[in-house]
Amino acid sequence: MPKMKTNRAAAKRFKVSAKGGIKSANAYTSHRFHGKTKKQRRQLRGTSMMESNTIKKTYRQLLQK
């Protein structure tokens, strides 16, 4: 049986945390900042954890090494 390949597109966008959660960058951060409040812009910086378990399962399969 050959090894499972990691999906390289997913590997560049998502990281698995030490406890098994999945971190990703936030959406809505590329343009149109004049329509967002300072609070929104500040909170969209950095990364956030994925919430849904069904989504996590799908991305964990893509990131399998």
TrEMBL record:
Keyword ATP-binding: no
Region named Disordered: 32-65
InterPro entries named among the record's database cross-references: Ribosomal_bL35, Ribosomal_bL35-like, Ribosomal_bL35_CS, Ribosomal_bL35_sf
Keywords annotated in UniProt: Ribonucleoprotein, Ribosomal protein
Alphabetical list of Pfam families matching this protein: Ribosomal_L35p (PF01632)
Entry superkingdom: Bacteria
Segments of skewed composition (Polar residues): 45-65
Signal sequence interval, chain numbering: none
Recorded GO CC terms: cytosolic large ribosomal subunit
Biased amino acid composition, Basic residues: 32-44
UniProt GO MF annotations: structural constituent of ribosome
Gene3D superfamilies reported for this sequence: 4.10.410.60
Listed GO biological process terms: translation
Family: Belongs to the bacterial ribosomal protein bL35 family.
Protein name: Large ribosomal subunit protein bL35
Lineage, broadest ranks: Bacteria, Bacillati, Bacillota, Bacilli, Lactobacillales
